[in-house]
Specification:
Strand content: 25-35%
Largest sheet: 6 strands, mixed
CATH superfamily: Endonuclease/exonuclease/phosphatase
Distance between the termini: 7 Å
Strand order of the largest sheet: 3-4-2-1-14-13
CATH topology: Deoxyribonuclease I, Chain A
Order of helices and strands: EHEHEEEEEHEHHEHEHEEHEE
CATH class: Alpha Beta
Low-confidence stretches: none
Number of strands: 14
Mean pLDDT: 98
């Protein structure tokens, strides 16, 4: 089973790239982030025409997450995280697909920091950790897939100096991510590439793609049952270089059945 996390950066603008990716790679599950479209305008017909069922949690112009499954309709388990009833951001969607629980996650960016956006980011990490703890207790194969907006280690970025003031790399952001993983989750890409140096995001500015000035913020965390089935993990990097591509590359894990 190939499970992909893909920050699409606007599903309307990137729909040709998404459909192209589905046709060429035929992943079993795709977790999308940053749909930037409402529930009503999600392109369900195009997704179904590509052979995929979908569940989505949209938001006009901002955020938005979805889970796609090849030849099947994902069964929704939960949308949104507990802890802040007033939080209307569409950032979390959890589904069941053939006995595997998959969550699409779009963690807040947190910039500028310090400030209220950074505080919200840290609270959101804690809320995610609370949900992750519940999922671990179920003892099922679970994959927490998404754009975490956290650079976990120094070797997960092209330049520590360039990112030193960014919310993605603050000690509090990293500590929140570490606490989450320490519950018993396996960072699939880190396990496959323990020395780092693998990027999932390249900014549109300053020729970042051409210079390979990227960093790793898209992660797939595996529960122990899922980690036992880990076959491979990687980044479909070439898709970042295509015309009108997202600034993220599809990032994936393969689990044995």
């Amino acid at each position: 089973m190939k499970i992909v996390t893909y920050n699409i950066n606007g599903i309307k603008a990137r729909l040709p790239r998404l459909v192209e990716y589905l046709a060429e790679q035929q992943p079993d599950v795709v977790c999308l982030q940053e749909l930037k479209t409402s529930d009503e305008t999600f392109p369900e017909a195009d997704i179904r025409a590509a052979g995929y069922g979908a569940v989505w949690h949209g938001q006009k112009s901002w955020n938005g997450v979805a889970v796609l499954a090849k030849g099947a309709d994902p069964v929704e388990r939960k949308r949104g995280l507990d802890g802040e009833p007033e939080d209307e951001h569409s950032r979390y969607l959890e589904c069941d697909i053939d006995g595997t629980v998959v969550a699409s996650i779009y963690l807040p960016n947190g910039n500028p920091q310090p400030g209220p956006k950074f505080d919200y980011k840290l609270r959101w990490i804690d809320r995610l950790a609370d949900r992750a703890r519940v999922l671990l207790a179920e003892e099922k194969p679970v994959v927490l897939a998404g754009d975490y907006n956290v650079i976990p280690n120094d070797d997960d970025t092209f330049s520590v100096r360039a990112m030193s003031d960014d919310a993605l790399m603050q000690p509090e952001s990293r500590e929140g991510f570490r606490r989450l993983v320490a519950q018993g989750w396996t960072d699939a890409l880190r396990t496959r590439y323990p020395k780092g140096g693998v990027w999932t995001f390249w900014d549109y500015q300053a020729g970042a793609w051409q210079r390979d000035a990227g960093f790793r913020i898209d992660h797939l965390l595996l529960s122990p049952v899922a980690a036992d089935r880990l076959a491979d993990a990687g980044v479909d990097k070439d898709y970042r270089g295509r015309e009108k591509a997202s600034d993220h590359a599809p990032t994936w894990v393969k689990l044995r059945s």
